[in-house]
Write a structure and sequence with these properties.
The chain is mainly α. It has a single domain, classed as Growth Hormone, Chain: A (Up-down Bundle). It is 81% helix and 0% strand. The chain is built from 19 helices and no strands. It has helices at 4-7, 11-44, 49-77, 79-99, 103-131, 137-145, 147-165, 168-177, 180-190, 197-201, 217-249, 253-280, 283-303, 308-324, 326-336, 342-357, 359-367, 373-394, 406-410. It starts with a helix and ends with a helix. The mean pLDDT is 88.
Length: 411
């Protein structure tokens, strides 16, 4: 039986949902592959932990530029045109990662990958939010966000199979390249989409700096800080958790993938729950609850020094809360901005947060020289989720809000 919110979608809205879900799954898969091949690269290339952190941070920093540029262009030339570009860019740049022969080449490829990575989510969320009814927006956008769990699971499964069957020096390259064909299929599917009515009926396009105007500056600051906290906590876990499992718990590549698969599966349930709760009890309460749960879960995993089995059990609440909160941010950011600058505002805030979070993997890698990786993850993730809790206090409640135009905001 189909969910009630899904039955409320018309044909174009359903196509928008599925093409966004598929695109974001590949988005997540392609960028998460690095964390799974990182243990291999540390050995094969003799990378330092600082260099490894830089490769992770580079993608996050460049994703800020990609997300904002994509949002600007989506407001100028349309959501669908941009969605076609981002999926092709992401596929090609990820293949380049697999073809890199040294640290410098991989760094450039990761920078290029970040541009497509940042843009895919921004355009998808805006498009879906504009084609669904206000009362189900949280669930529709949140379910698109749940595609991250699918992509993470695909990355875990792909890397586990390929690295087990192929020699390490060759296997990590194949791992990066396998997503090219599915990306082409998503591109073809996107040719059937119709532009949202909200975009077609919007007024004259605003300048790039409209999100920093007197009427919008507060929303931009709050949205940027919210995204910074959420991304910093997530990327602390996503980048270094496999290394922690290998170095501090002595797990094999297969066992590491199983632990991370548990986090990914739990995150799916977290995304779905957060999406549902956002429409039921509000965006603010949902964000605060999941940020608090994420803090407690990551501290239990990193500071209580659980057994291997205990860590496996704790992986479920970790994935549920730390990732589930992301289902609430998409609706919040789309509802903070009028149609004419919605893509620009959402793209900037979300990816500004990614850029700021880019420092987290680098800081953890640098800290690993004096403290354990697990302890460093716990410290930085706690600060990050504390920021989410603080910002949530000052956010307006936007549940059920109709999407507006600039004239409605300024009148």
């Amino acid at each position: 039986m189909k969910a009630q919110w899904y039955q409320m979608l018309d044909g174009n809205a359903r196509r928008a949902f599925w093409t966004s879900f598929a695109g974001f799954s590949l988005d997540a898969m392609d960028v998460q592959l690095y964390a799974f091949v990182l243990p291999v690269l540390l050995t094969a290339w003799g990378l330092s932990h600082t260099e490894a952190g830089l490769l992770a941070s580079a993608t996050l920093v460049s994703s800020a530029a990609g997300g904002w540029i994509t949002g600007l262009l989506a407001d100028k030339i349309g959501r669908i045109r941009i969605l076609k570009i981002t999926i092709l860019w992401l596929a090609i740049s990820t293949c380049l990662c697999g073809l890199a022969d040294n640290f410098g080449q991989l760094l450039v490829a990761r920078l290029l990958q970040g541009l497509g990575f940042g843009g895919e989510w921004a355009a998808s969320v805006v498009f879906v939010a504009e084609v669904v009814a206000p009362q189900i927006r949280g669930r529709a956008v949140g379910m698109v966000q749940s595609a991250w769990a699918v992509g993470w699971g695909m990355a875990a499964a792909t890397s586990a199979v390929v690295l087990a069957l192929a020699p390490p020096d060759f296997g990590w390259r194949i791992t990066f390249i396998v997503g090219f064909v599915p990306a082409i299929l998503v591109y073809v599917y996107r040719t059937r989409l119709k532009e949202s009515e909200a975009f077609l009926k919007a007024g004259p396009r605003s300048s790039w700096h409209a999100i920093f105007s007197r009427s919008m500056a507060a929303a931009t600051i709050k949205g940027s800080l919210l995204a910074t906290g959420m991304h910093s906590g997530y990327w602390a876990i996503a980048t270094w958790w496999p290394v922690m499992l290998r170095s501090e718990y002595g797990l094999s590549t297969t066992a590491t993938s199983a632990y991370l698969a548990t986090v990914a599966i739990a995150s799916f349930f977290g995304y779905v729950s957060s999406a549902w709760l956002g429409d039921r009890m509000g965006r603010k309460a949902t964000l605060a609850s999941f940020a608090l749960g994420g803090t407690l879960a990551v501290l239990a995993c990193t500071e209580l020094h659980p057994s291997n089995f205990g860590l496996l059990l704790l992986s479920f609440p970790l994935g549920f809360f730390a990732l589930g909160m992301f289902s609430a941010i998409g609706p919040v950011l789309t509802e903070l901005y009028p149609t004419e600058i919605r893509g620009s505002g959402l793209g900037f805030c979300y990816n500004f947060g990614r850029a700021m979070a880019g420092a987290t993997p680098l800081l953890i890698g640098s800290s690993a020289a004096s403290i354990s990786v697990g302890h460093a993850i716990g410290i930085y993730a706690t600060y990050a989720y504390g920021l989410v809790l603080l910002v949530t206090i000052f956010l307006p409640e936007t549940r059920g809000q109709d999407l507006t135009s600039m004239s409605e905001v300024t009148s």
